[in-house]
Amino acid sequence: xxxxxxxxxxxxxxxxxxxxxxxxxxxxxxxxxxxxxxxxxxxxxxxxxxxxxxxxxxxxxxxxxxxxxxxxxxxxxxxxxxxxxxxxxxxxxxxxxxxxxxxxxxxxxxxxxxxxxxxxxxxxxxxxxxxxxxxxxxxxxxxxxxxxxxxxxxxxxxxxxxxxxxxxxxxxxxxxxxxxxxxxxxxxxxxxxxxxxxxxxxxxxxxxxxxxxxxxxxxxxxxxxxxxxxxxxxxxxxxxxxxxxxxxxxxxxxxxxxxxxxxxxxxxxxxxxxxxxxxxxxxxxxxxxxxxxxxxxxxxxxxxxxxxxxxxxxxxxxxxxxxxxxxxxxxxxxxxxxxxxxxxxxxxxxxxxxxxxxxxxxxxxxxxxxxxxxxxxxxxxxxxxxxxxxxxxxxxxxxxxxxxxxxxxxxxxxxxxxxxxxxxxxxxxxxxxxxxxxxxxxxxxxxxxxxxxxxxxxxxxxxxxxxxxxxxxxxxxxxxxxxxxxxxxxxxxxx
Length: 495
What we know:
Elements: H1 4-68, H2 72-84, H3 89-117, H4 127-152, H5 156-181, H6 186-205, H7 218-223, H8 225-256, H9 258-273, H10 282-292, H11 297-333, H12 342-347, H13 349-367, H14 371-396, H15 398-424, H16 433-452, H17 455-480, H18 483-494
């Protein structure tokens, strides 16, 4: 930061991160709104049984896709970005062909697996309807490959357009099928919507990179093997996470019934899932940028620390207002029956603060193509949370469970920082440690207020902490970037 040149680089990095975090955050909010509307339409025309059937088909297709696509849609981003940064169009097009070839191959494999699986699941699904899902597995693989190409080649505005278009396509297709065919239209709606999503994605991704596959080319098949190995590691790591989630839910169900399972999942959703909107730009923007710096440790550390700074500045005020407003938010989004999960949600908010400090670093293993390290850290965390959470829940209930999730997030942060410092020479930038400490103290104060005060005192004191945190973030971003200044100028032009 001492030299003007270094400061200019930092400005450019923070401006870029702010821009695309905001863009993809808004896209994520739009997707959530479309999902709410889609669920409302499904509830009206399908009823509870039809919505249950929709969930079953969605989960079946997603599970088959995730277990047969070998993580190509994620691992492909790293390899495409490494080639794209060389600014060699012919080489980029060549590797795009490799990725597309593997996408079709794993898609055909998934399609065949879906056809075979209908014999095992014929008691739960109608055979003809389930077979209709098989082409969607292929189309999901092709779509994932094209999205990886756009992410790797940093065509982020095209990616944004596709994401917005997809949200409207799914809503536009589902509504008439549900209205005209009721529950019988579910597999047809999934098939047609996925076809349109694939075509829309292909339209944007093939601009400048014409579509071509080479199923029988040894060169392309050999070139894609590292991508496949990393993808397999991602699948195994994902299975670890799914397994730990299933075990926790099973333990709670066996202990106190499905009611507490619902409370736990709603509490986790409020504290973790909704707050994750801030992280929505990770896969689309940050992961390709970090992958492109894998051979430059200095640039790698700078990229990671910039991302950490922006995430903390954005998420800290959000979490403070969330902690204070949780008693109001949960009854509105769900019902008064879910009030018991409020204390768990508030206690788990620190997890997201630690996540903001940890997540940008954890992507380093993926950017380096080190699937073994990624699997190891995921396995350790999943074993930790699957062991500790059930024990704490059984002894002290949901409130203590929320704080336990936060404690597991802190331990994961310390493990990631230690291992990645040793293996990848990651260095944390201590120049802004004071900012992270202040935001952490403000968040801790808001959580304490949420548990110890009520009524006017809670709202006045809590909102004061939120305003202080918001002012601090706004002040730092205004000082270090011109992003806030550009926003002000846009609002002035519209006045």
